[in-house]
Amino acid sequence: MPPRKATKRSALTTPKGPREPKQIRKKQELIVKPDFRQIPSGGVILVFGQGDVGQLGLGENVVEKTRPATVPAYQDIVAIAAGGMHNVCLRQTGEVLTFGCNDEGALGRDTSKDGSESEPGSVSLPSKAVQVTAGDSHSAALLEDGRVFAWGSFRDSHGTMGLTLKGNERFPIEILPNVRIVKIASGADHLVLLNENGHVYTCGCAEQGQLGRLGARAASRNTRHGMGPLLTPALVEFKVTKKLEFADIWAGTYCTFAKEYQKGDIYVFGLNNYYQIGLKDPVTHFHPQISKTFSGKVWKHISSGQHHTIALDDSGQVFVLGRKEYGRLGLGPNCSDAKELTPVPALSSIKCVDVGAGSAQSFAVTESGDLYSWGMGSSGQLGTGEEEDSEKPVLVKGKQLEGKTIVRVSGGGQHTLALATTSPVKKKTAG
After folding, report:
1. For the chain, which end, N or C, has fewer CB atoms within 10 Å of the first or last residue's CB respectively?
2. How far apart are CA 151 and CA 136, in angstroms?
3. Average pLDDT, whole number, for the chain?
């Protein structure tokens, strides 16, 4: 594959015929550049929720925080990703830090020293990273040269699947060599990759339809083909009649969203048992379809938990979709499951810059740097100081938020990460 690329490039400078250079120029017109949601200058990591396996990053003796606490020693974090029981953070230098549960290799580094998993530690990668993601038991990093490295393991209903056909990978391994990737997204147990020509690749667990390229019969490891089609990244086929290209991707716990380049349509596949991907039939959808409830708006970010989705449009409005239990939709005590994207009334007059879904929680970051949370709070993962559910957005307060501006949020299994800058200082809202 690499020699072919080299030949094509040389055709541009040394034409051998009129057709091929034209064809190549046309193909290379589309160089997709999605938003990584990095912040321009570094910030600090704030954590709250359950920390029984080190996922708070505050050392092995801190197993719970019901209000936000700052992870010491790092002021240059530009991106965060909370996994099921671990976290991946990106420094301004391109260095990747991980902390939390390392049972399946999700930290990508040696944690043989007692307690070393409960504090941030560096992952060795061949060059600078520009984006990081985290699933339940795997992590991934996109490097500045378009290569993707992943580590850990995928899981399905039978248990550990491994990350590749070799099994678990406790240290970073290159995924999909020879294809230049421009964005990655992790679900609980699947990885989605978008290349520079707008094509979508997937690998991992397919049981809930989240790979979008295998039918129900082929989605299990027990077929005659075994793990090969699951763990080998392959192209998702969209409409054969149209050569669709995509500008962005997002992964939910058990589903995938892809934004079409020309019209901005959102194609979805995966679990829809509570209408969380916005399709009319509450069943598993194994192949891509347009989710019409997303039509007519420009989406900046989409985040999806086990059974609900939260989305942010380009005007800063927050919408929710899916299951109502535990208050995760933020629509109040008497709401129904949301079959269509529904604005969150409590945030309707506030412009937001980020949203995130935990397993059964929702979060929104406002333009002025405040963090709101709602949904299941049984492990303190709402950051409100309580371990109770909240059916409407609650402003997160705390001593360690004073003088900090929240800019990003990422929900994990029973814990939450936030990214904050210390300049400019916002008005004091913490109590």
Report:
1. N
2. 12
3. 92
